[in-house]
C-alpha cells in the first residue's frame, strides 16, 4: 500500500464528513447505515482487489461480459454491416472497421441487454437476486424494505427499479424518496453498462469487470450518502419488512423479448435526444463564457463549463487518490459528468488514455471509472423525478423538493465508491486488474 492508497482511504472519511456538513439534520444520524454501508464496500473491495480468488473471479466476470457483448453485436453487424464493426475488427468478407461509431456499435447493445434482463425477469431469476440483496441491506442497515429493494434493483436496472415498490411510493417518507432518487442516480443499469464497455474496451481491457464491481459498490454508497444528506425523521411503513418486488410478468417468453427490446429502443431514443440537446446547450453556454472571459475579463485561456467544474471537483479528485500530475485532467472529466452525462465523460477518459495524457494511466483510469459509474447529472435528475412522479403523482411536490439533495448524495456516493477502489488498487496488480 503506497501513499495514494492512504489518500484514498482517508478520502472515505473526508467525503462522509463533507456530507455531514450538508446534512438536513446533523444530530439525527443512522450510524448503522454508515458503518455497514462502508463496511460492505470495504469487504467487496478487499475481495476484488486483494483476495486472489476475488481477482480471478473479477477476470472471469470481465471475460463473460466481453463475450456477451460480442454476442450482442451479432445483430448490429447483420443490420448495419461494416458500421457496426468495433475498431480493429474485420468482417467475414474482409471489410475493416471504420472506427468507433457510438450509434452503430454501442447503442444496439442496449436493446440486447434490455431483452436479456426482461428474460431474466420472466424466469423469475432477477427478482430472486434483487430480493437477496435487499434482504442484506434491510437487515444490516435497519432501513425500510422498500428503499432496500430499490437500491438492490438499481444494481441491475435503471429508472424502472421504482416500479418494484410502486404500491408503496404514495406513502413513503421524504427520506425514503430521497434514497430512491439517490440510488437511481448513483448506479447504472446493466444495459447502459455495455455502452461504457464499448467506449473504453480498447484503452482499458478490464473495464467490464470494474464496471460490474462499481455497480455493486455504488448501491450501499448511495444508501450511506442519502441517509446522511437527508436523515429519516419519520417511521417508514416498511421498516423491518421484507418487501417483495412488484412487477407485471409477460404472458410468454417471446412477449418478454419483444417488450424488453422495445424498452431498449425507447432508452436509446432518450439517450440520443439527451446528448443532442445537452451537448448543444453546453456548446452555446461555452461560447458565451469564452466570449465573456476573453473580451470582457481579458483571460488568456478560454472559459468553459468543463473548466469551471474542473476547478470545483479538483479537491475531490485529489482526495480520491488520483496522482496530482493527473488531477487537472481527471477533475475536468469527473466534473463535466454533472452537465454532459457520464457517456461523454467516459469517451473523454478514453480519449485521454489514447492520447497518453496521463502520467499514471492505470490508477487514474481505474479511479475515474468508478467515480463516473452513475447517472449523477442534471439531465438524469429530471428523468428520475419525472418518472417517479408519474408513478406517484400525489407526491410530485415532495419528490421535486428532495431532488437536488438526492443528486448531491448520488454524486458523493460515486466519489465514495472511487475512494474504495483507490484504497485497494495497487500498481502491482495492474497487469491483472487493468488488463495490460
Features:
17 helices; mainly alpha; globular; 436 residues
Please provide a written account of the structure.
- This protein is mainly alpha-helical and 436 residues long.
- The protein has one domain.
- It is built from 17 helices and no strands.
- Helix 9 crosses helix 16 (403-424).
- The protein is globular and about 60 Å long.
- It starts with a helix and ends with a helix.
- The relative contact order is 0.16.
**Percentage of residues in DSSP E strands:** under 5%
Unreliable runs, pLDDT <50, ≥5 residues? none
Q: Biggest β-sheet, characterized?
A: none
Gross morphology = globular
What is the percent of helical residues? Answer: over 70%
User: What would you report as the Rg, rounded to the nearest angstrom?
Assistant: 21 Å
Structural category: mainly alpha
Total strand segments: 0
Please outline what is shown here.
By secondary structure, the protein is mainly α. It has helices spanning 3-21, 31-49, 52-80, 102-122, 125-141, 145-153, 174-186, 190-200, 207-229, 253-296, 305-319, 324-354, 361-372, 378-391, 396-401, 403-424, 430-433. The chain is globular, with a radius of gyration of 21 Å.
Amino acid at each position: 500500500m503506497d501513499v495514494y492508497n492512504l489518500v484514498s482511504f482517508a478520502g472515505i472519511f473526508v467525503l462522509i464528513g463533507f456530507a455531514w456538513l450538508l446534512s438536513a439534520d446533523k444530530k439525527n444520524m443512522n450510524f448503522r447505515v454508515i458503518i455497514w454501508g462502508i463496511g460492505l464496500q470495504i469487504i467487496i473491495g478487499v475481495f476484488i482487489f486483494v483476495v486472489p480468488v476475488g481477482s480471478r473471479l473479477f477476470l472471469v466476470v470481465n471475460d463473460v461480459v466481453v463475450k456477451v457483448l460480442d454476442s450482442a453485436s451479432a445483430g448490429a453487424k447483420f443490420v448495419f454491416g461494416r458500421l457496426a464493426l468495433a475498431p480493429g475488427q474485420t468482417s467475414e468478407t474482409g471489410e475493416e472497421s471504420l472506427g468507433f461509431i457510438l450509434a452503430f456499435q454501442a447503442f444496439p447493445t442496449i436493446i440486447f441487454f434490455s431483452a436479456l434482463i426482461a428474460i431474466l425477469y420472466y424466469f423469475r431469476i432477477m427478482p430472486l437476486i434483487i430480493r437477496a440483496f435487499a434482504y442484506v441491506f434491510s437487515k444490516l442497515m435497519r432501513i425500510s424494505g422498500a428503499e432496500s429493494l430499490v437500491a438492490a434493483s438499481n444494481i441491475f436496472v435503471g429508472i424502472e427499479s421504482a416500479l418494484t415498490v410502486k404500491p408503496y411510493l404514495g406513502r413513503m417518507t421524504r427520506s425514503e424518496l430521497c434514497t430512491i432518487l439517490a440510488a437511481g442516480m448513483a448506479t447504472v443499469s446493466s444495459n447502459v453498462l455495455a455502452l461504457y464497455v464499448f467506449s473504453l474496451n480498447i484503452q482499458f481491457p478490464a473495464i467490464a469487470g470494474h464496471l460490474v464491481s462499481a455497480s455493486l459498490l455504488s448501491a450501499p454508497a448511495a444508501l450511506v450518502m442519502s441517509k446522511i444528506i437527508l436523515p429519516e425523521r419519520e417511521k417508514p411503513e416498511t421498516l423491518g419488512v421484507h418487501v417483495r418486488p412488484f412487477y407485471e410478468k409477460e404472458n410468454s417468453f417471446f412477449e418478454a423479448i419483444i417488450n424488453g427490446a422495445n424498452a431498449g429502443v425507447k432508452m436509446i431514443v432518450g439517450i440520443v435526444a439527451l446528448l443532442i440537446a445537452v451537448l448543444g446547450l453546453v456548446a452555446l453556454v461555452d461560447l458565451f463564457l469564452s466570449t465573456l472571459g476573453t473580451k470582457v475579463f481579458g483571460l488568456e485561456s478560454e472559459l468553459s463549463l468543463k473548466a469551471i467544474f474542473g476547478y470545483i471537483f479538483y479537491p475531490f479528485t485529489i482526495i480520491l487518490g488520483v496522482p496530482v500530475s493527473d488531477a487537472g485532467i481527471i477533475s475536468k472529466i469527473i466534473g463535466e459528468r454533472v452537465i454532459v452525462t457520464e457517456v461523454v465523460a467516459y469517451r473523454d477518459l478514453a480519449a485521454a488514455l489514447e492520447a497518453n495524457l496521463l502520467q499514471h494511466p492505470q490508477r487514474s483510469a481505474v479511479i475515474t471509472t468508478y467515480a463516473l459509474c452513475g447517472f449523477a447529472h442534471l439531465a438524469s435528475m429530471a428523468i428520475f423525478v419525472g418518472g417517479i412522479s408519474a408513478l406517484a403523482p400525489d407526491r410530485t411536490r415532495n419528490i421535486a423538493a428532495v431532488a437536488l439533495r438526492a443528486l448531491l448524495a448520488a454524486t458523493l456516493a460515486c466519489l465514495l465508491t472511487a475512494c474504495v477502489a483507490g484504497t485497494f488498487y495497487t500498481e502491482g496488480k495492474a497487469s491483472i486488474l487493468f488488463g495490460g
